Amino acid sequence: MSSHDIPEENLPVEQDATHGAAVTVADENHPFADPGLPPHEHRIQDIDERAAKRSERTVALLFTLSMLATVGFIASYVTIEPNKSIYVFPIGHISAMNFALGLTLGVALFAIGAAAVHWARTLMSDVEVADERHPIEAPPEVKAKVLDDFQQGAKESQLGRRKLIRNTMFGALALFPLSGVVLLRDLGPLPGTKLRHTMWSKGKLLVNMNTNQPLRPSDVAVGSLTFAKPEGLEEHDEDFQTQIAKAALMIVRLQPENIKDKQELEWSHEGIVAYSKICTHVGCPISLYEQQTHHALCPCHQSTFDLSDGARVIFGPAGHALPQLRIGVNADGYLEALGDFAEPVGPAFWERG
Ligand code: FES
């Protein structure tokens, strides 16, 4: 755009100082004259179409580089082993995946920024314009002018004419967000129904967590509190914490005549009842038992459960009773589970799911 294209009202003209416009001649009231805008100098791209084409190719190249870097980011994320390390001077040994992700993401962002800057500096209009300040409430004719200016700016950006730039820019901007989308994979696999089930299944022996021995009914005395885990779950197992957090059991022996809940009695063996040790408030392990009252107490927020009455909550913030595990005795005389818990263990958010 040449200076001939500038709207007349934007050119530095001598105006009446008494109306608050630009002062181009110093006087008593305005000792400093407004020098106005310097003369516009054309860039090589303004007068030489071949130079403009070169700039266009440079911008397109940078946008293309950004696209390639984004593809490289995704490829790095998918193909590089997370625990692989490489030596990078002068940093030393670092994670190969982190290095590749950082590098490609940096190049993708830098290339988009560099392309935008180069485009603005070499091809978009560089004619400086001055505009008067106006009241915030713009009159309709000013709004119309803004719209005109916007359309003029869009025309001057040559977005419609330079299709190569436009297409590669849209490609780079459309592809770049994919970098964030692939990172969603790091949220881990969907849990499916895993959180609704535990290791307990029909025939699994109840193993004493202290002695690591399968429990017989005679091992559980009236008034005692025994903690148990499923047979086959060992402390050195990789997923021990995950599994025990759901499967930990609390076993007590009651006099059968003291059991008030009918289902509890059916699911017990000779007065031995097995309940989840995981508090239904926010999941603390329950560890206190009062044999006189048959109350189990969670130490975190004092939720209290009546183990003689279906482990219903009699005090505290827990939302529902502890899940009971149905148990029996196998042919060898060991206590065994007769299935999984009938409901998910732990906090009550399951009820809202
Ligand atoms: S976690 Fe048991 S009462 Fe809060």
Bound compounds, each kind once, are: FE2/S2 (inorganic) cluster
* Separation of the first and last Cα atoms: 62 Å
Low-confidence stretches: 1-20
Number of helices: 8
The percentage of residues in β strands lies in 5-15%
Binned, the helix content reads 25-40%
Mean pLDDT: 87
Strand order of the biggest β-sheet: 3-4-5-6-11
Q: What would you call the shape?
A: elongated
Q: SSE string, helix = H, strand = E? A: HHEEHHHHEEHEHEEEEEEEE
Question: How many domains is the backbone divided into?
Answer: 2
User: Which radius of gyration do the C-alpha atoms yield?
Assistant: 38 Å
Structural class: alpha+beta
Got a strand count?
A: 13
Largest sheet: 5 strands, antiparallel
In short:
This protein is of the alpha+beta class and 353 residues long.
Question: Which helices and strands occur, and which strands form pairs?
Answer:
Elements: H1 44-47, H2 49-79, E1 85-88, E2 92-95, H3 96-122, H4 140-156, H5 163-175, H6 178-183, E3 206-208, E4 225-230, H7 240-247, E5 249-253, H8 262-266, E6 272-276, E7 288-290, E8 295-297, E9 304-306, E10 312-315, E11 324-325, E12 327-329, E13 335-337
Antiparallel strand pairs: 1-2, 3-4, 4-5, 5-6, 6-11, 7-8, 8-9, 9-10, 12-13
Helix pairs in contact: 2-3, 2-5
The chain binds FE2/S2 (inorganic) cluster (FES).
